[in-house]
Amino acid sequence: MSDILVVRDIEKTFGAVVAARDISVVVPVHQTVGIIGANGAGKTTFVNMITGHLTPSKGSIHFENKDITGLPSRDIVRLGISRSFQVAQVFPTMTVLENMRIASAIANSRDSILDRLFRPIDAPGAVVEADAALDLFQIARYRHAKAVTLPQGVRKLLDIAMAVAGSPRLLLLDEPTSGISIEEKFGLMEVVMSALKTRRITVLFVEHDMEIVGRFADRVLAFYDGTVIADAPPKAVLADPKVQTLISGTQRAHVGQADA
Amino acid sequence: MDIRWSLVASVALSLAYTGGASAQQAPAADAPPVKLGIVTFLSGPAASPFGVPSRNGAEIVIEALNAGKAPAPYNTVGFGGTKIEAKYVDEAGSTAQVVTEFRNLVQRDKMDAVVGYISSGSCLAVTPVAEELQALTVYFDCGTPRIFEEKARKYVFRPPPHATMDNTAAARFLLAKKKDIKLLSGINQNYAWGQDSWRDFVGAMKALAPKAAVDKELMPKLFAGEYGAEISTLLTSKSEALHTSFWDGDLESFVYQSQARGLSRRMPILGTAVESVIWRLKDKLPDGTIVGARGANGPLAPDNAYSRWFKQIYTERYNSPPNYPAYQMALSLLGLKVAWESAQKKKGSGKPTTDEVVASFEGISFDAPSGLVRMALGNGHQGIQDTAYGIYKFNKQKNEGEVVDIMRFPAECVNPPAGQNADDWIRDGMKGAKC
Amino acid sequence: MTMPARSSLLGALAFIAVAAVAPWMPPWLVSLATIAFANALVVLGLIILWRTGLVPFGQALFYAIGAYAVALIGRYTSVRDVFVVILAGAIFAGIAAYLVGFLLARYREIFFAMLSLAMSMILYGILVKTETLGSTDGFHVEAGTFFGYRPQGVWLNLSIYWLVLGFSAVMAWLVSLYFRSVAGSLSNPIRDNEIRVEFLGISVDRLIHLKLVVSGILAGIGGALAALAVQHVDPAMAYWTTSGGFVFVTILAGAGSVGAAFVGSLVFELVRSIAIDLVPGEWQMILGTVLLLTILFLPEGLGSLYGRLRRRKDAAS
Amino acid sequence: MLTAFAIVTDGLVYAAYLFLVAVGLTLIFGVMKILNVTHGSFYAFGAYGAATAAGIWFDRGLPDAGGFLFMALFAMAIGLLIGIIIERGTLRFVYGRDEVVVVLVTYAIFLILEDVIVLIWGPRSYAAYQPMVAAGSIDVGDLTLSIYDIGLVVLAGVVAAAGRWALKYTRYGRLLTVVIFDRETAAAYGINVTVVYTVTFLIGAMLGALGGAVMAPKISVTLGIGVEVIVLAFAVVAIGGMGSVEGALIGALIVGISRAAAVHLVPQLELFVIYAVMALVLGFRPYGLFSQVQPRKI
User: Fold this and answer.
1) Which of A15, B54, B218, B390 has a CA 20 to 30 Å removed from the CA of A38?
2) Contact between chains at B249 and D125 (C-beta distance less than 8 A)
3) Residue B298: which region, alpha, beta or left (left: phi > 0; alpha: psi -120 to 50)?
4) Which chains border A (3 or more CB–CB pairs < 8 Å)?
5) pLDDT digits over A114-173, tens only?
6) Domain-by-domain residue ranges, chain A?
7) Which of B3, B88, B107 faces C14 most closely, judged by CB atoms?
């Protein structure tokens, strides 16, 4: 088993504001890592740095032993790291199928202008792949609906399906269940996680719901004030009093009960 | 695919359209009229100073000709007894549009002749098309000498003189008034007409007064409107005269702004196209301004039966005296009439063909409100005339500007001899000028 | 038969029909259609950008470069073959588009429009200052030859017309292929969501750069053909109102289909010509009204009419 | 020395003209995100209106001082009138469409209005020089300056200051600032965005007409003056940053001084100055000097 992602001492500052600091994380392949933390704790900044949306002010990021620090997102995507977004990033005026076909076609093209000029969008390989992906994420019945009309959960699934189109080895999910009703959350995560398991993808996901983290993560990173304050299996992290005080907010409730 | 609709649409539209047009233009009398297409600026900035006066000139002259009421020898009805029917078209738009509309006039509307074009660009673009379509085309205003210098033409004529004489005569007039002039400046619009005018003028000055130096050479963009910086520059200059080929809007704006800052007290304006604004500027145009009218037009016109007639009928109808584009339009129509009638006479009876009119147009001479025209250049296709310059003086009693101190220059003094390129002629010192 | 194949066949038939009737069309209509179809090639380029959400107010830059390339070759060399000079026009326009693309591709929306306008106005300024090329008067374009054959009289206009049609057909076919390629399909996605496109592994700027070059080449060919048809070039070809005219036709045509560019351009020329004929002093008002009504009541342009018609027919059958 | 002084004064006068022409455009863009081509028509209608007013006033031999005020008010009234017609009659139907489509709507209206001018005033040109002549001039060394020009500079300064003050300290100004900053939030806070749009458009229309009115005495009011102004105002606004009043002021100063310097030092370059400055500024600051564009959050 080798390490797919090695992050060393990265830091991100915006002027005087420190958004992330002293973060070092090593992720082995096929692990599923949950990321927790309050709003503004640096979770999304962390994801943004790994996917090239932000360049770290300090430190390095290696993916499969390749230094990817500061590369533009599109190159990082081409190397095999993909991501989904807190607010689903799809093409709203296009149908679900069209969205998926674009993603598959790009994944099937080589990174050259000429190749993309001469490769038809409806090449058979990409079409078959797109249909398969819609089936895998169980959104095939929405195939002819415009993305703008989709329910939130379906839009999230489409977003993730598109992120997976390029067969990434590492996938970062930024709050996959945000904006989804509590009843639907588990169903959605089941679909996503089983799909990713069949593709054997290493996953990092940002999540607020501790139950979901406990259920799906092999390991949890807890963020507070721009840095990682706990890194262990879910049970251990959730039981950590520091985490309980600063993040999950359960500690005070327990204390209150104890006093009563 | 939508292409097939283009076919349907274009055929339907064109059929409906030509059908409608031909019904409209069904002959009213027995003899079909002579159809003239008149092209001039009816919209845009050039409409007010040039386009509308020339259209007015065309209307009034055609009306007089159709009534047989012009002074002899122009007192036959229309062209050789046949009435004239005119169609007016806007010259504004891209060159492609101008050429398309020219083709429409010739091929769709079957005009007997096209009279028009103010912009030199239009004339240059229309010329090869006129030759290709073998369509008789008469230019009335555009100034560039290039038309007949680039190539010999058969179907294209320009009875009014080209712009070379405007600036050679301007130089001669300036030197007649200020023999020892040492320093002069120029302000001209940054486009072909302004650049050509300035080059011709400087060339002529070099030939005639090698000691006179050029100080400021200003080239603001066309329709700039605001000339504060230019006026400041000129205020710091010791120039004794300011050459300009500005016209209408830009000229008026420049005059207002330079008046307000006392530029005219330092140096007089020598304007090759000042005549077009004197009726409006009145006392705002400083006394002492040297007035050009692109020929002996307007107040510079010689006193003859034709100029009196034209000024009278125009003023009666439009409540203002005609300016030079109107004169040039009148001149061009009269020239065409002379050529048409002489062709008709040669033929004996019936309507002369285009080739017959062309043959009798070449090299003729005729009288116009601005004096005698001789089709002497460009193998008889380009007219020359005597020209004149004068000095502006505002008459308070009449509340009207007048031009005094008029000096006339014979055609051969200010135009290149036949067969010689105008630019070269000026550069080589205007050899052979007969003054 | 598949949809694209059916459209291609219909398109080819339409082009052949429009070409075949030429000798029986009134000559003025042939000239008008020549200009209209030459301009339609520029509009085709605009449609490519339009689908990406970009509207250039300076496409006249490439149009003028194509035209001046043809004119200058005619003036300073002895090369007259129409195919060679048009190719030269396309190449020069393409190079220009490639160069300004480094700057322009970073801009979107109004800023893209304004900067492209500035670029074309700089070329306009340079051409106006070039007195040896006649400044604003422009100069004559030498007539072209077809593999050594020099058409005369009526055949001159007809050959230019067929030449324009030939180029139109080829370009329309190539552009419709382009729209079905991966690069071409990314127009709508870029307009919808650039971030997603970037995170699919594509450089949006580079893709827009490519689209600029493609549209620049089309504008260059359009300009080259227009120069051969009008036989005259002048700096006004680079002026912003020329660009405005192309945008106008694009709105009229709609970005929905390749064929619409040709219909729209032809309708525009006809409307303009008829307006000038009927109200010589106020024809701009008619054009403005047509544009306004199109935007208000036919937001997808003339091309959408055909689509509506076909849907109705499909529903009926 | 004299040249340097002349460059500064000429630059200021030209900048004042540019600012007065551009301020209405930038305001409308800032609030409504509309690049308003009809701004050229406002300018033209303002100039024609002022010339008409000058005719009415001075033909009766009324005093010069009131004449200018009458011209300005008359022009702004015309601006208000066509502003209402355009906004209520067409623009409000296209709010929410693509920015570029709205630009084309204004372009169409501009084409129509160009011919409306011909229908109302005919193709002849008009003059309204009286206020400039009445203002007189002063001599500074060899240079004679027009007092009317100095008045223009003062007026531009007053408009800039008033604009700043109004945006900062009046209720409506603060409303505008909110709308400029974030349309959706403004709507969420119960601001009636439609009314804000209408009022803004009318203010912009009146400012455009005022620009035409104050230039009318200096120029010949003739067909096509609107076309020239559009591109000029666009360039100024693009340089300064679309939607920013300060930006329009700085943009006008940069263009004004550059052009004056070009005329005095290298007159051959005058034709390019504006576009060269624009390309240069945009090359380094893609959204202008005072832009309010923020990167999108993900």
Assistant:
1) A15
2) yes
3) left
4) C, D
5) 888 888 888 888 888 898 899 888 888 998 999 999 988 889 999 999 999 888 899 999
6) 3-259
7) B3
Residues of chain D with a CB closer than 8 angstroms to some CB in chain C: 35, 90, 93-94, 97-101, 103-105, 107-112, 114-116, 118-119, 123, 227, 231, 234-235, 238, 242, 268, 271-272, 275-276, 278-279, 282-283, 286-287, 296, 298
Which H, E and C letters describe D58-74, residue by residue?
A: HHCCCCHHHHHHHHHHH
Q: How far apart are CA D34 and CA A198, in angstroms?
A: 50
D125: pLDDT strictly greater than 60: yes
Interface test with A, best of C200, C206, C211, C300 (most A CBs within 10 A): C200
ipTM given for this complex: 0.87
Q: Looking at CA atoms only, how far is residue B160 from chain D in angstroms?
A: 25
Q: What is the pLDDT of residue A184?
A: 84
Contact present, B135 and B384 (Cβ < 8 Å):
no
Residues found in chain D: 298
Which chain B residues are within 8 Å of D260, Cβ to Cβ?
228-229, 232
Cross-chain residue pair B256–D132, CB shorter than 8 Å: yes
Per CB-CB distance under 8 Å, the chain B contacts of D3 are 236
- Whether residue A17 contacts residue A189, with contact meaning beta carbons closer than 8 Å, is answered with no
Q: Is the Cα torsion angle C25, C31, C34, C37 positive or negative in sign? A: negative
CATH of region A3-259: 3.40.50.300
Which residue in chain C is spatially nearest to A168 when comparing CA positions?
A: C200
Q: Does residue D281 form part of some domain?
A: no
Can you state the angle between helices D171-181 and D193-215, rounded to 10 degrees? 110
Q: Give Cα separations from B327 to B136, B270, B294, D237 (angstroms).
A: 21, 21, 10, 45
> B31-162+303-384 — its CATH code?
3.40.50.2300
Domain that holds residue D192: 23-223
Per-residue pLDDT tens digits for C13-37 = 888 888 888 888 888 899 999 999 9
Could you give the angle at the alpha carbon of B22 between the alpha carbons of B19 and B26, nearest 5°?
140
pTM for the full model?
0.89
Is there an interface between B and D (3+ Cβ pairs < 8 A)? Answer: yes
In chain B, where the domains are located: 31-162+303-384, 164-293+386-427
Domain residue spans in chain C? 3-240
Rounded to whole angstroms, how far apart are CA atoms C268 and C287?
8
Chain A residue closest in CA terms to C208: A113
Q: What is the pLDDT of residues B336-392, one digit of tens each?
A: 999 999 999 998 878 999 999 999 999 999 999 999 999 999 999 999 999 999 999
Of B43, B236, B252, the CB nearest to D125: B252
Q: How many domains does chain D have?
A: 1
Q: Shortest Cα distance from B239 to chain D (angstroms)?
A: 14
The domain over range B164-293+386-427 is classified in CATH as 3.40.50.2300: yes
Query: Beta-strand (E) ranges in chain C?
Result: 139-140, 232-233
Domain B31-162+303-384 and domain B164-293+386-427 have a common topology: yes
A85 contacts on D by Cβ (under 8 Å): 298
Amino acid A124: pLDDT: 81
The shortest C-alpha distance from D171 to chain B (Å) reads: 37
Among chain D residues, CA nearest to C115: D279
Helices B52-66 and B305-318: angle between axes, nearest 10 degrees: 110
Cβ-defined contact of C118 to D99 (cutoff 8 Å): no
Cα gap A236→A233, rounded to integer Å: 6
Of D102, D114, D91, D75, the C-alpha closest to D200 is: D91
Look at residue A250 in the predicted model and tell me its pLDDT: 52
Per-residue pLDDT at B85: 96
DSSP D144-195: EEEHHHHHHHHHHHHHHHHHHHHHHHSHHHHHHHHHHH-HHHHHHTT--HHH
